[in-house]
Amino acid sequence: MHEKKNTVFEADFSIEKLDEWKWLVYEWAVTEDILNFLKNDDMLQHSIETVRDHLAKKYDLFIEHRLLHDIMQMKQNYF
């Protein structure tokens, strides 16, 4: 995994050490993370294009249209 510079505990093993803080989205948690971002930002009811623009501007996240479509289809399973 990744180890952030500001961590309190040093890992025995890490793939990469990050000098600056950034939010990491791992493939096994992408749906949950993205939906929580959108819920917190009150964006769950917006169009996919509006959501894509929002994620790019606010979080510097660029998500393929098809993947975002699939994520948005899952929102009823989370909230």
Give a quick summary of the entry:
46% of the residues lie in helices and 8% in strands.
Structural features, described:
- The chain has 4 helices and 2 strands; from the N terminus they run ββαααα.
- The chain has helices at residues 30-40, 48-59, 65-73, 75-78, and strands spanning 2-4, 16-18.
- It has a two-stranded parallel ribbon.
- The protein starts with a strand and ends with a helix.
- The chain is 46% helix and 8% strand.
- It has one domain (2-78).
- The protein is mainly alpha-helical and 79 residues long.
- The model has no long low-confidence stretch (mean pLDDT 89).
- 5% of the residues are buried.
Helix % is: 40-55%
Q: How would you classify the helix and strand content by structural class? A: mainly alpha
Please indicate the count of domains: 1
Outline the low-pLDDT stretches.
none
Number of strands: 2
Using only C-alpha atoms, the radius of gyration works out to: 15 Å
Count of alpha and pi helical runs: 4
Based on CA inertia axes, which overall geometry fits? elongated
Give the overall average pLDDT: 89
* Through-space gap between termini: 29 Å
Topology of this structure?
Elements: E1 2-4, E2 16-18, H1 30-40, H2 48-59, H3 65-73, H4 75-78
Parallel strand pairs: 1-2
Features:
single chain; 79 residues; mainly alpha; two-stranded parallel sheet; 4 helices; 46% helix
